Amino acid sequence: MAALPERARPDRRQDSTFEVVLPGQLPAADAVLARASTENFPVASRILPRRIRRHLLAVYGYVRLVDYAGDEAYGPREGLLDLLEADLKRVYDGTARIPLVRALEPTVHECGIPRELLGRLIEANRRDQHVRRYQTFAELLDYCVYSANPIGELVLHIFDRARPELVTFSNRVCTALQILEHCQDVVEDFQQDRVYLPAEDRVRFCCPEQDLARPAASPELQALIWFEVDRARRMLDEGTAMVGRLSGLGRLAVAGYVAGGRATVRAFADAGHDPVATEVRPSKKRILSEWGRVSVLGRAPHPGRRGSERIRSAYRQCEEITRTQARNFHYGIRLLPGPKRRALSAIYAFARRVDDIGDGELPEEQKLRRLERARGDIRSIDIDSEDPVLVALADAAHVLPIPLEAFDDLIDGCEADVHGQEYRTFEELVTYCRRVAGSVGRLSLGVFGASQPDVASGRADALGVALQLTNILRDVLEDRCNGRVYLPTEELDRFGVRLDLVGHGMLLDGGAALDELIRFQARRAEEWYAEGLRLLPMLDRRSRACCASMAGIYHELLQRIIADPRTAMRGRMSLPGWQKAAVAARSLAGMTP
């Protein structure tokens, strides 16, 4: 923060209002105007005439000064806002004293800007001092009437085009830009105890405020950000009609603001809609590209259903979830051609959501409600959903014969986990495995395609069972610590294993009996692999490579468990990245497990 130079400091002898300001409470004009280069959009492009640029920079300087007083200034911010309002009144008789406020005088008089419009920006920052949360989107829209919409109307005044119908379009664009800025700044705002993501939306996406304090966005927060960004994109598309009704310099300037918003939407997609771990900023190249497109078209691009940016963004979100959370499956999924890779990522993203509900920390009743809602989401899936995973999954199911009803089995299995169900016999355990993993095999087969669908479905189911049995053997200790036992009770009794825990979270069982039980179960899993891998010859080359890679990684884990059963008892096992990559490479070369 820079101190005001002596010549810029208010004359306290003439007005006692200024006595509340201390040197350094307001930044220097140059420091404020320098921030124009960091905005999402071109504030005052050099291709515009000097007179227009001067007016645009005057408005920008005033807007940013007011924001500084409400967001960053030390000391009594309410007093500073009162000070700015008092000086704003002086603008209209030519006696303003604060440099950035005084710079507005020529713009106000030459462009006929009403004081009420500039005053709304001060009111928005007054609200920020008291309102820290917004319960509904309607409340946030009302805030934007004061914080964002005046800016677009000010620009229209500068170009002498502040007509009611254009102001309506402008308000849509400005509200969209404000929403995008809120999404970019979620962490910074949260650190100042402000949350602009409406509470009703956070509840809808099961996203608590605590997610804003994590080092990276949770899947729930990513879905919420996608929703808010998509909402802003639709507003931008509606408001872009304003560009087509303008001409000359006005059209060029306004197209730049719209282009900045569109480029920001794309930047969110590129960042996986994670503004927590990533600073989301549009590139200059992207802004220029969008600027040219919007300037020429005079409207938002009109993509077809299949090529919709919204659908592409939803798929990118699913692929990001897969990349960051499917540590084993990702190596296989990326071997698929683009359309199949995206479809399988959508399947994984929804399956992961269901698993996370079952494995989460919510009370049992809330978990069951969320699982039932997930079941309803699948049964009423729609391309126009507000959820990116559902958008992508609906599109994938429209193109490919994906048996979405298989998700019912997956949800049934997760409900069993929530209830803490145990399994008396191996046959009962296999039923569970078919639900939680065989279902994913059948869903994946809808993406892969197969030469003999009916036969292939059974083999895909068997491969899913093999992978789930491997998971169970790998996670015996972790599951027991979480209060779950999947190994059949009949076989625990037969081998004399109790799976009791000692105080430091280790299994009391550690002798030959446990080793023998683990190897016995592993040999059973091998039989399921033998049946499941018979699926591979029925798939095309790329699908075969994907399936073989995923199966190969898990089969390698199973081999390690057989070699040393106690390895799994010491903690979660995993293959190093280089070895997973090697398995994927062998699979692509046709060297199946």
Provide structural commentary.
The protein has 593 residues and is mainly alpha-helical. The protein has 29 helices and no strands. The chain is elongated and about 95 Å long. One of its GO terms (biological process) is carotenoid biosynthetic process. Keywords: Transferase. InterPro entries: HSQ_synthase_HpnC (IPR017827), Isoprenoid_synthase_dom_sf (IPR008949), SQ_synth_HpnD-like (IPR017828), Squ/phyt_synthse (IPR002060), Squalene/phytoene_synthase_CS (IPR019845), Trans_IPPS_bact-type (IPR044843), Trans_IPPS_HH (IPR033904). GO terms for molecular function: geranylgeranyl diphosphate synthase activity; squalene synthase [NAD(P)H] activity.
By secondary-structure content and strand pairing, the structural class works out as mainly alpha
CATH fold name of the largest domain: Farnesyl Diphosphate Synthase
The top-level CATH class of the largest domain is Mainly Alpha
Number of strands: 0
Task: Please state the overall shape, judged from the principal axes of the Cα atoms.
Answer: elongated
Number of helices: 29
% residues in beta strands: under 5%
**In sequence order, what are the helices and strands, one letter per element?**
HHHHHHHHHHHHHHHHHHHHHHHHHHHHH
What is the overall pLDDT average? Answer: 88
Estimate the helix proportion, in percent: 55-70%
- Identify low-pLDDT runs: 1-20
Write down the domain tally.
3
Radius of gyration: 30 Å
CATH architecture annotation of the largest domain: Orthogonal Bundle
Q: What's the CATH superfamily of the largest domain, by name?
A: Farnesyl Diphosphate Synthase
Gap from first CA to last CA: 63 Å
- Major sheet characteristics: none
